[in-house]
């Protein structure tokens, strides 16, 4: 489980090894280098007040160093964690005096629970440290848990997780686009668009929006659909190109659901037909993260229903120094749609009940709909469907109400309902605020 509260990341793992061995993995420099891949330097003065230094093959300028603050053999290690101001070749915030707390607990003589908490990280270093610790703990999995070694030999990922909800709800989470947007996320990115044509040979698309503005597309076709039991689909990452055939690599994912007692479901993912140079660590880490997100989402919303998403809405109020009649006249001429930044001369606007409109922002972003209620000087209601940079929106409803206030002023309230994604809702909230700010009433 990964928890990110803005200043900390937290991981919890179970290992098939005695607690003494897990503790030794973090307190003995030679042992440390044997499990954490690509470690070139591991210097440890392992005592309270002692210092440590760690370096890796890549990037060569990166390091971690600090002071041991607390040591309880086979139970706990607390240390400061300082790193360089470079990450993946880019200048970032220096990490200074963040704290790393490691706890160790024996379940029995051959199984241990390990927990890592990293506190006081700069905001722009949370994502890269979350990713870094994910990979580090996967290296520990490689060393201590033999099933993972089998994954590497077979060039496939085979991972299972028990989810505390019914098989029907888990199936809906895998097959409904609105549900996929809530949990099927990638490190450092948000799933902006999810489309799924759930039939054999039907296609699916997953578009991930990264913080730098890049969009990363995963897509494929459904090969087998056995409701509530099994889902098989191809997996194509447009960022991976097979130079021999000049197209993206295609692999296969099989999702199997097994009902268990007490309203639980075992979810098994097998990702196979991977190319020989695939990063197994990334695939294993990605699917592990997805299953964690799935469980957290279904636990947060026990109904497991996409209907929750249709209740997402926004409401904005703004006053204008004109009468409701003048404001309504401006809206009836399409002034609000023009204020959204529509491309010049592209606005289609038939202002009557049953009339259609369309607004385009560029070749790939647009909205269209129908006016369903118009009360002069009081109310305008219309449907809203389209696509933006962060995702799609379908059959939303926008209601604009006007009310006179003191001094020949008007209060405009805009309510927008029916969002399938909070990411899309927030994007619209920003857009509508800017549009209402730019609205010209004359």
What do these coordinates show?
This protein is an alpha+beta fold. The protein has 10 helices and 24 strands. The strands form 4 sheets. Strands 1-2-10-9-6-5-4-3 form an 8-stranded antiparallel β-sheet. A hairpin with a 6-residue loop joins strand 12 (189-196) and strand 13 (203-210). Helix 1 crosses helix 2 (29-35) and helix 3 (126-144) crosses helix 7 (280-300). The model is unreliable at 1-6, 147-153 and 304-310 (pLDDT under 50).
Low-confidence parts lasting 5 or more residues at pLDDT below 50?
1-6, 147-153, 304-310
The total beta strand count reads: 24
Trace the largest sheet across and list its strands: 1-2-10-9-6-5-4-3
Radius of gyration: 27 Å
Helix share of residues? 25-40%
- Major β-sheet profile: 8 strands, antiparallel
End-to-end distance:
55 Å
Give the rounded overall mean pLDDT: 82
Q: Which structural class do the helices and strands define?
A: alpha+beta
List the helices and strands and how they pair.
Layout: E1 3-4, E2 9-15, H1 19-27, H2 29-35, E3 39-44, E4 51-56, E5 63-72, E6 76-83, E7 86-87, E8 90-91, E9 95-108, E10 111-119, H3 126-144, H4 146-154, E11 157-163, H5 167-175, H6 177-183, E12 189-196, E13 203-210, E14 215-226, E15 230-242, E16 247-260, E17 264-272, H7 280-300, E18 312-320, H8 324-332, H9 335-339, E19 348-349, E20 356-362, E21 365-375, E22 379-388, E23 391-405, E24 409-419, H10 422-438
Which key terms come to mind for this protein?
single chain; 8-stranded antiparallel beta sheet; 7-stranded antiparallel beta sheet; disordered N terminus
